[in-house]
Amino acid sequence: MKLFLANSTESARHAGCKAVMRSLGTAIAQVPGLVIVGIHDHKEKAVDEDAFQEADALLVNGEGTIHHSGNRARFLLDLIQSAKRSGKRVLLVNALFQQYDCPKDDILADLALLTVREPRSAAFARRYGGEPRLLLDSAADPLFLAQGQAIPLAHGRAIGGFHQNGVLSDPFAGIEGDRLTMRSGSFEDIVATLRGAELYLTAQHHGVYAAALAGCPFVASPSNSHKIESFVEWTGLPIPICMTREEIVPAMAFATRNRSMYAELAEFMASQSVLTSSMLAEALG
């Protein structure tokens, strides 16, 4: 079977995005007879039409793109609609859904596979005909996490990054700690580093994921969507999300006092699954 892969984030300078694509690429490679005939990079505004038409199936990486009716979201939704009209199997994975002005009420119906990373996206996807499966973000693939090498820290506290369109701009400015963002190393290196950290402050989705996998206490502020808040809701743990700067210092004290809660979170992560080759094979028939 011939596959067209859309919204590849392999070229992104972001450890989480690269980890997602490594996991997806490995899963695809493990499906017997499945061959990628075309790849669309997340920065491109068009696809290779010949490769797209040649493909029997379309797999869209939903990471980082399919929300808030942005231009890239609409482009990928239109691509999905085109693939459905052409009779291709369509798989949309690792997706986030939020606040659409959607061109079709059933845009997510009849997909061969639809996976989302948190419950709010699952509920929203159902509004547009989807039948979502709830999985961890593919960056959490256990196949690769043991390969990480810890980055030396001079301070027990690590300070992560933030999204320019997040709730708070530079929310941890002035707080002492070592910088550790999604550009500091590979995703598995960041997880390995956080296993030895006392506290992590982050306003990035993959930063929260790295801390959760490491069992490291963390303080979080929302990114550019509901993905952090909804992920925490999914775990059922009362981990605070800081909506104002005034909440950050109390949240730091809470995280430090409740280290066992973050160990529980690591156990939750270990109990869940990422997208696997067997899921892809089943969806592709």
Distance between the termini: 10 Å
Strand order of the largest sheet: 2-1-3-4-5-6
Separate helix tally: 11
What is the number of E strands? 10
Mean pLDDT metric: 94
Radius of gyration: 19 Å
How many domains in all?
2
The parts where pLDDT drops under 50 for at least 5 residues are: none
Largest sheet: 6 strands, parallel
* Name of the CATH class of the largest domain: Alpha Beta
What is the H-and-E element order?
Answer: EHEHEHEEHEHEEHEHEHHHH
Shape: globular
CATH topology-level name of the largest domain:
Rossmann fold
Tell me roughly what share of residues is in helical segments.
Answer: 25-40%
Strand content: 15-25%
Protein structure class:
alpha/beta
CATH architecture group name of the largest domain: 3-Layer(aba) Sandwich
Structure description:
By secondary structure, the protein is of the alpha/beta class. The protein has two domains: 2-141 and 272-284, Rossmann fold (3-Layer(aba) Sandwich), CATH 3.40.50; 142-271, 3-Layer(aba) Sandwich (Rossmann fold). Helix content is 38%, strand content 17%. The chain contains eleven helices and ten strands. The chain has helices at 15-29, 49-54, 71-85, 119-127, 142-145, 187-194, 205-214, 227-235, 248-257, 259-271, 277-284, and strands at 2-8, 35-41, 57-61, 89-95, 113-116, 133-134, 157-162, 178-179, 199-203, 218-220. The strands form two sheets. It has a six-stranded parallel beta sheet with strand order 2-1-3-4-5-6, with helices on both faces. Helix 7 (205-214) crosses helix 10. The model has no long low-confidence stretch (mean pLDDT 94).
